[in-house]
Design a protein that fits this description.
By secondary structure, the chain is an alpha/beta fold. The protein is 45% helix and 12% strand. It binds adenosine monophosphate (AMP) and magnesium ion.
Length: 269
């Protein structure tokens, strides 16, 4: 495993303490070196995605979680910008409605899992069912507390079937969230992003941290690791996510499929 990934992974079985993670950390990188490396990583990612698409036997599922204003949308915009749209799906999970409410919580998730050859990005995910649902008691504790095992089983099954899973928690500090909310209020091009309900959620900061921590402790697995990305600095966030995505895809040892015919023998005018 490469350096950044090693620093940011939540080791399976570890009892990570989020208050010990500095959301402003940049692992020794400065902005210029990050921007330079990001450009290179985006080129690498495009090539790796092409190979995943060509091989068409496995898929990559990228889970993005984070508190409001944590940078999920920005990460998708900046890190996935060089990808071929034909090979990518982005699914945003909102408050369940309609048929989603009439099924188990993994129903909508399973349908959005990327097909072979594709990369699927989840903007929020099944983890909301142990985050917002837990913080607001939307189901009894007895119900949400067994979901960690259920999620682990589900992800194990996906992994056994050929879905490579990689999960990112974008971690910003409470001050940085306040700064970003203020920007949304003051900058008229960002007004649309502001939601009064985000301020309400901010009051539950500590409860969210506890819920994130449990999620990380219980659900980081070798085949489906969680990474905590210090995300106060967007340039470092983008570098870290792009780097780990490249490493993950490289670790899959992707291969072009064999030609369907003996190409040397083919002649035409
Ligand atoms: P946004 O990502 O800002 O568009 O907001 C989506 C909202 O949907 C967030 O407040 C999430 O917490 C909420 N949400 C997503 N999944 C669930 C779920 N399974 N149960 C309840 N709320 C959810
Ligand atoms: Mg929001």
């Amino acid at each position: 495993m490469k350096q950044l990934a090693r620093e940011l992974i939540v080791k399976p079985g570890s009892d990570i303490k989020l208050h010990k993670v500095d959301p402003g950390d940049t692992c020794g990188y400065d902005k210029d070196s990050c921007d330079e490396r990001l450009t290179k990583n985006l080129e690498r990612l495009a090539v790796l995605q092409y190979m995943l698409y060509a091989e068409a036997k496995r898929s990559l599922l990228v889970v993005l979680q984070g508190i409001d204003a944590g940078g999920k949308d920005g990460t998708i915009k900046h890190v996935m910008s060089g990808l071929n749209p034909q090979g990518v799906t982005v699914t945003s999970f909102k408050v369940p409605e309609g048929a989603e409410k009439r099924h188990d919580y993994l129903w909508r998730i399973h349908q959005a899992v990327p097909e072979w050859g594709k990369m699927g990005i989840f903007n929020r995910s099944h983890y909301e069912d142990v985050l917002v649902v837990r913080v607001h008691d939307l189901v009894p504790k007895k119900v949400w507390s067994r979901r960690y095992d259920e999620i682990n089983d589900f992800e194990r099954m996906l992994s056994d079937s050929g879905v490579q899973i990689v999960k990112f928690l974008l971690y910003i500090g409470k001050d940085e969230q306040a700064r970003r909310f203020r920007e949304r209020i003051e900058d008229k091009h960002k007004n649309w992003k502001f939601s009064p309900s985000d301020l309400k959620e901010r009051e539950y900061w500590d409860e969210y941290i506890d819920a994130y921590q449990d999620m990380l402790r219980k659900c980081s697995k070798k085949h489906a690791p969680w990474y905590v990305i210090p995300a106060n600095n967007k340039w470092f966030r983008n570098l870290a996510v792009s780097q780990i995505l490249c490493d993950t895809l490289e670790g899959m040892d992707l291969k072009f499929p064999k030609p369907v015919a003996d190409l040397k023998g083919i002649k035409f005018e």
